Amino acid sequence: MNWFLFNKTLKVGTVLKQRYEVIQFIGRGSYGFVYLAVDRKTNTKVVVKQHRQRRDHNSIQMLKKEAETLSSLRHQSIPSYIELFEEKNKWFLVMDYIDGSNFEDLILLQGKSYNEKDSLQILFSALMIVSYLHENRFLHRDLRLPNIIKKDSELFIIDFGLAIKLEREEAVSLTDGKSEKELFKEQSFKSDFYALGHFLLFLLYSTYEPRSKQEQSWEEELIISNETKRIIRKLLRIEDSYDHIADITQDVSALIDKL
Ligand SMILES: Nc1ncnc2c1ncn2[C@@H]1O[C@H](COP(=O)(O)OP(=O)(O)OP(=O)(O)O)[C@@H](O)[C@H]1O
Predict the structure, then answer these.
(1) β-pairing verdict for 81-87 and 90-96
(2) Record-annotated residues binding ATP (predicted)?
(3) Is 141 found in the same domain as 15?
(4) Which residues line ligand 1 (CB under 6 A)?
(5) Among 79, 96, 113, where does a domain finish?
(6) What pTM did the predictor assign?
């Protein structure tokens, strides 16, 4: 197989299934290409993900798994599944397009900054969506800045490529010398809590102005309340971790009211 030709991206103007017209190439993900397209049937913008042939992954399987996850979720803050299809030996997944900006772009490109209260309010909105996932026994396992989108004042979570349905939760306690990667990917709800801890830290760092040339720990660098520090420590499992998402939501909401 000619890998290069197989992995060529679609041209703007290509119409798939006589329905989806590619209008923009959005990006190259770990296992596929992502396009913005217009659904001629509904005249709305959609996202089309195309698998990319890789020697080391079964990208078709991954795309199918993402389609299965998306099709079993229904939430106003998660893109709706439209369809999965094969055309000319390539597989495509179509979903709603969320016309907003992800937090990586908001902070790094647009220079947005979030104070302690803003950051906790954003975390609270993310927790509402993750609660829905966890209630349905799904773990997202990739809650990073590029996968959390803000559209007007609403938050959305995208990219269910690594999500899994948890049949049986791994018993996990403290970090036990695990690497960051292992903590993100663990088959436990705590892996999403861990990612949300990092998400909160990134939001808080958006207002950070270095006061010393020496690099310090986040607890020394960030000027935030002890309560927020404690929430982060628990999310990152530096101390007694959270067991249930409802406990996080409760702590965050009580603290927002206080600040
Ligand atoms: N439903 C969507 N609405 C808006 N933008 C989207 C949507 N899905 C994906 N994108 C955009 O395309 C980019 C890549 O998509 P996605 O993260 O799902 O692909 P991936 O192959 O899993 O990538 P990665 O390796 O970065 O995880 C996202 O960062 C986002 O900018």
Answers:
(1) antiparallel
(2) 49
(3) no
(4) 26-27, 29-32, 34, 47, 79, 95-98, 102, 146-147, 158-159, 161
(5) 96
(6) 0.91
